[in-house]
Design goal:
Blueprint lengths: L2 H8 L13 E12 L2 E9 L10 E2 L2 E3 L7 H13 L6 E6 L3 E2 L4 E10 L13 E8 H6 L3 E7 L23 E10 L2 E3 L1 H20 L1
Parallel strand pairs: 1-7
Antiparallel strand pairs: 1-2, 1-4, 2-3, 2-8, 5-7, 6-7, 9-10, 10-11
Length: 211
């Protein structure tokens, strides 16, 4: 093997997550909108007719298509389709930290501003059962409830324990996942939506401390 040749071929390669080519990629937008001159976060309630997660609260978003220029373009396209607005009505789209889930997906979150009035939105009934907003100032003041989910490792039945140190007594590294819950009226915001929201609020808090 010519080591110099290998080095020259790989030195300019951009690192990425191992096996990320096999991951499903999704993009979502955390939309900010003015309601009576106050900045609100806009949420969707998924239509009850949807096969996956009907009735749950989410942000606009969906799978990144091959026709999308990039993840940002996918987030904008999905927001346009779900809220019935034009690209020009979505401004200042900015990336947040992406999420790699243990279920073979990568989620690319963004936040941005919806410049049209709330009453002018035309949600897609096939995907959106309801829209509601929550004042950003309220979300910045409240602390979410946090619960832990334990993820248990269960190797398949014919796993080759005999070839690894420790055998059947091998100590698998346990992992806990935190689930955040925000409450607003009768609405419960949790799951990935709450995780992205919490990340966004933490960034705002950090910015305000450093301002």
């Amino acid at each position: 093997m010519d080591w110099n040749k290998v080095t020259n071929q790989l030195k300019d390669r951009k690192p990425q997550i191992i096996d990320s080519e096999s991951y499903a990629k999704f993009a979502v937008l955390l939309p900010l909108i003015k309601v009576e001159n106050e900045l609100h976060v806009l949420f969707e309630v998924r239509a009850m007719e949807l096969r996956r997660q009907p009735g749950e609260i989410c942000f606009p978003g969906g799978k990144v298509d091959k026709t999308d220029k990039n993840e940002k373009a996918a987030a904008i396209r999905e927001t346009m389709e779900e809220l019935g607005i034009t690209e020009q009505e979505i401004q200042d789209v900015t990336p947040l930290d992406y999420v790699v889930s243990p279920f073979g997906t990568i989620i690319y979150p963004y936040f941005g501003t919806i410049t049209t009035e709330l009453d002018n939105l035309k949600p897609n009934d096939a995907e959106v059962g309801e829209l509601f907003t929550t004042p950003l100032s309220y979300l910045q003041k409240v602390e979410p409830d946090i619960y832990s989910i334990k993820c248990k490792m269960e190797p398949e039945q014919n796993f080759p324990f005999h070839v690894i140190p420790g055998g059947v007594d091998y100590e698998w590294q346990a992992r806990n996942m935190e689930e955040h819950f925000y409450y607003y009226g009768d609405k419960v915001i949790w799951g990935l939506t709450a995780r992205i929201l919490h990340h966004f609020l933490q960034l705002l808090q950090k910015f305000e401390r450093n301002d």
